[in-house]
Amino acid sequence: MSGWGNKDDKSSTGTVTLTAPSVTFNGATAHAAGVITSAAHPFQTGDSVVYNNGGGTSIVGLTSTSTYFIVNLTSGTVGLAATEDAALKGDYITTTTDGSGASHTLTHALSNGRGVITGSSTLFTTEAAVGDFIRVGSQEMIVLSIASNTSCQVINANPQVVLTTFSAENYTLNEKPTSVSSDANILSTNVFGVNATEIAAGGDNVVSAAINNGGTLYVEVPVVTVSGGGAVVTGSITGTVLTVTAVTSGKLVVGQTSGQFTGALGAQLTSTEVAGVLGGKGTYTVSSQTVGATTITTVPGTTAAGTAAISGGAVTAITVTNVGVGYDAAPTLTIPKARVTIPTSGITASTDTVAYTAHGLAAGDAVKYFHGGGSAATGLSNNTTYYIATAGLTANAFKVKAATTTGTLAATVAVSGTAGQFTCGASTLAVADRVTITGTLGGTGTITGYATGTVYKVSAITGTSPSVTGFTLTTEAGVALVSTAGTLTGLTYTVETVVDITATGNNAQYFEKNASTAATAVAAKGTGTTGTSAAHTGWVQRKVGTGQNAGRIQYEVLVALSKNGITSDAADDIEFPDA
């Protein structure tokens, strides 16, 4: 049986920041005889804290940056003990000599598993409850106490992950199992349930994406585009086509009169009740609207989103990062062919070089240039195929040419001057062409600094192609060569006409790899009336294999067949997020 999921998540308004529990106090006025005053401090007896005098004078008996242990005297006062044992006995350090300075601190490290969440525009007192779970990335925390709409204290819910600070992050807030507890082998955070009241929810969400074909030649993570599927369209203007995919308590509109909405199948809505008309779902056209208090009421639609992962040149997974809302059918997932995105800093116009670390391209490979909606790099044309040149090709850089062809210089090549002048048999050559010289230099002529595979730039020619009989070479940067006239033996000359790039374009431009195949994937919706999978009350238990079973994940599924199903709540939405 496959796993299923439904929403246990709650509204999670605003963003959150995690910091270590700490207080700041005045070393003189907030201290008396070893008692430190700090209103609503976050500490518990036995907590280890680091004391810091904040640049002032330490309280006598305490050493700045040293560790002490909390004796929780009241909700607004604490004492400090030298050892945990002493703290548990209530034996704290007493002194009559204050410190100085208003920036003394006590800090309980996050690595101890407890932290303080500070919210921006959050509504903890109305949306959250003690025991709820807050998740940010891989960090999952249980709410221990709620101080205000923007402050709560949390404890690490997953000992496999150490809490670390974060700032202004989006988060999920959800309820967790009350019927399943942790034991030596199972974490309650790895148990995901569906209760009887949640079965019909979540059918309009995108919960997962499965890879059909991983594609080839990927070196950067492609952007996944989600389209189609009938996402909600909101509006309250006559003539607007309104797609309704979620109805609260059978209500579609408030205060509208019969005849103002015409159903997609010709059915007419009666007043505000929509029970029995396409189940309250379908596409309706607003034929008229009364201005004022009569407005269309719908669930605002959002588009689902996902992030791909690649390995070995293929797309290996897509993680749903936004489940969206309002999908009557699973949307289409589009993954582009492999590409290398080139910012303006990646183009060196003086040498016509494109930089990209580990691009994976080979000489002769076909690539198609796209400007990405901005200004094209001068010399390159949008939606045009080019070819990787041999000249200047390294693991992290390349040049492009308009044709696949390469040429060679007709025998015999000789050095004819002291500044990179050469003679040759009748050849095809042009100014700005690149000449790659390979082999062991012999003969009486010399080229200072020569090494096999060096790329040179043609700065002048004698004659007209295909009858060029002389040429001058410089370095790629245009620096004159130092040479000695004479014969040359043992060398091969490869000639290429690379694209002359004179401006760097924009940061969204890219080269698509023509030989690559695009990855494909399909999306699946959640449970519910229009969902991909069938809903049952029950729970899903997730076990991560160890030892000889390392790398395997086992899901055990219990289906509750009782009339009322599971009555306790549980959070499956992290593993199977469809709301």
How is the biggest beta sheet arranged? 8 strands, antiparallel
Give the mean pLDDT.
78
How helical, in percent, are the residues? Answer: under 10%
Distance between the termini: 22 Å
Give a count of the beta strands, DSSP E runs of length 2 or more: 47
Instruction: Provide a count of the helices.
Output: 2
Determine the strand fraction and express it as a percent band.
35-45%
Strand order of the largest sheet: 1-15-11-12-13-10-2-14
What Rg do the Cα atoms give? 35 Å
Could you list the spans in which at least 5 consecutive residues all have pLDDT below 50?
Answer: 1-7, 178-186, 188-201, 230-301, 532-539, 559-579
Structural class: mainly beta
* Mass-distribution shape: elongated
Which terms summarize this structure?
eight-stranded antiparallel beta sheet, disordered N terminus, Elongation Factor Tu (Ef-tu), domain 3, disordered C terminus, mainly beta, single chain, 579 residues, 2% helix
